[in-house]
Amino acid sequence: MAICAWLLCIGMAAVPMVRHQLTAGLATDAGRWPSATALRPFPTGITVVLAVHARCPCAWASLDELSQALTAAPDLQAYVLVGTPPGTDPDEALARRARRLPRTQVVCDDGSAAHAFGVSTSGHALAFDRLGGLRFSGGITGSRGHRGDNAGMAAVIALGRGAPPGHAATPVYGCPLGGPDQTCSRCAARRPE
Amino acid sequence: MSASDPIQPDQAEDAEASRLFARHLEVLQRYTDRIFAVLLILQWLAMILIALTISPRIWAGSDSAIHPHVLGATLVGAAIISLPLLLIIRRPGSVATRHVVAVAQALSSALLIHLTGGRIETHFHVFGSLAFIAFYRDYRVLITASAVVSLDHWLRGMWWPQSVYGVLEPDGWRWLEHVGWVVFEDAFLIIFIRQSISHIREISLQRAREVSDRRRLLAATAEAEAAREAVQAHAEVLTRVNSDLQQFAYVASHDLKEPLRMVVQYLEVLDLRIGPGLDGEHRRYLTHAIEGGCRMQRLINDLLAYTRISDPRDAFIPVDLNDVIAHVRESLSVGIAEQDAVIEVERLPTVVGSASLLGLLFQNLLANALKFHEDRPLLIRIACDHQADAWRILVSDNGIGVDPAHYERIFQVFQRLHHEKRYPGTGIGLAISRKIVHQHGGTIAVRPTTGGGTTFVISLPRAAPASAKTVPLPDAP
Q: Which of A17, A21, B188, B355 would you label with B247, given CA atoms 20 to 30 Å apart?
């Protein structure tokens, strides 16, 4: 009886943690490549736009998954929009990790780029064809901060290899990005024209 | 065997070995409990640290809060270690405690794997945990831990595979692959546990044997001590009785001497005064009475000599046997000349003893040789050889010899093999000789001489007997 009560306590204590882990964020998008941004789709292959929150711990898993996708599919190219909250250094560890990704441009985002693409959750990846048509929208991790095979990454890799994606949309697991008013002044200064 | 039968030594040994084995195992398992108490707490702290490092906060724009992983590591971790710690404190060494510890350790692995995002490297914590659990030397605890790990992988594989395998859709048998590796390690750990248990049993049995041997030794020592005390008590009684007897014999002999001397003297006076006037028959009666009295005087004198040997008055000193023999030859010179005897003496050693007693010993032996011989020329030889710890002196003659049937009898007091008319004597000489040899810690025996005759073999210790007062060792001649 005591052991059953003990196991029950452990289970109950674990519920909030598991619930958080499996709760997806908002998965909105603009539908196609926005005109209100200086960024442009790469002229060949598939362009992946990944928005991450610079301090969100789950973002590391998203970057790792993107790294695997870029390695697996050479036709993939990426923009990583690093949203940086006010008062923090935009050139921190996550941005440095993103810069090491192949065929990737890192953008210090004050929130306007993410807003233009219509995404509001860290870890949201969008895959566009060279004409700006949206081919995939969703997360590329299976849950918050968990690495490993998942439907989102499989879809991006499939697109990069010229194959149809298994899923056009997947849940996004990550922290809310916040609006342009919640970004730092240094990011605003670096905003691409 | 009924319940009232005494426990046999082997059974007692087995029972002691079982007790020692159980005790040893209990100590080991209590010690392992303590190790796990420390390990569980350290793991809990490590998990909180990992959560704080990997995912300290969740963010919403510029707002942040404590990450649920930090709370989970703290609260779930605390819940996991609470019951095992309680049991380790309250019931250390019990079966239930170690099973709960095993479950807690497996759950710690599950939580750690979750906190690190299902990293495959974190699964090594499971294998390390199993190795630690094997410290209990109880394969059932290992099975409990393995069952929890298997159940966790199976359930999470069904409902939330990415948290344990890092993939969203593993094939249905993925959990079996993980369990297979756990079983693989379990096989080796169970072999280790069996060998360890066998080793502990051997050590317990060996210690039980040592305890049993020590007890037997103590019992034997106690018995030997009791026997020694009994022998000592008997020896004291015998010494006292012997002393009383010697005193009695001495006093009796001494007190008999004077009246006997008067009887003999007055008989001799009568023989002198009226003897010539008596007829032949009465004269013979008087002569027999005088001879009987004289013989009794000799017996009493010999008896007194025998009793004195039991209490040597002079201390033992180094005695040169060559000098002793020379004195004996001198005192027996008349008899030697009468018998025309030839005496050959080898170089003899110096021994520790009483010069007077040793003189008496050799005088008795030589006198016997002079007395008991036939018509052929008498040859007496005194030889010596040495053994490891004794001198062996051989006194041989070519006399009439001794029937082997009487080899023991001739050393008894007043035992004679021949009629006094033929070979006069009291029959106490060899008894005195043996007593002297025994006083010197040696032995005396008799054997035939080649070609006829008697050889007395005397062994005297090279070191002085324990009763001796002075003990310098003599050199070889």
A: B355
